[in-house]
Amino acid sequence: MPNRSLEDHLFNRALNPLPWITRLQIMLGAAQGLAYLHEGLEVQVPPVYFSTLVIYRDFKSSNVLLDEDFKPKLSDFGLAREGPKGDRTHVSTAVVGTYGYAAPEYVETGHLSIHSDLRSFGVVLY
């Protein structure tokens, strides 16, 4: 991506700091990307069509890539998983991802929900 990753702009002292309005726009765009995953993707595999929510599982600044206009694009979906179905609140899974960004309840129990992504988002905001 032309403007590298959000991590590069936050921690690489060789790059000029981003203006606060640009940072805000990046985080709003990243939040919209997570919301898109959490609200349910329309999957079309003819003759079957269904909607499923996706838990990203690895939201961190290095996975937020920036295009030429500093619009964020989520990258690295290797750890993403399909979310819970029906009345289930979570998915049980082996704990993977970057521990500094992972939700404590996910690390402790392996229970994964969209709230796990929201906690990771909060870590990046902090």
UniProtKB/TrEMBL annotation:
Residue ranges annotated for the Protein kinase domain, each copy included: 1-126
Keywords: Transferase
Pfam families, A to Z: Pkinase
GO molecular function: ATP binding; protein kinase activity
PROSITE patterns, sorted: PROTEIN_KINASE_DOM, PROTEIN_KINASE_ST
Record carries keyword Signal: no
Leader sequence segment: none
Record flagged with keyword Transferase: yes
Full protein name: Protein kinase domain-containing protein
Organism listed in the record: Rosa chinensis
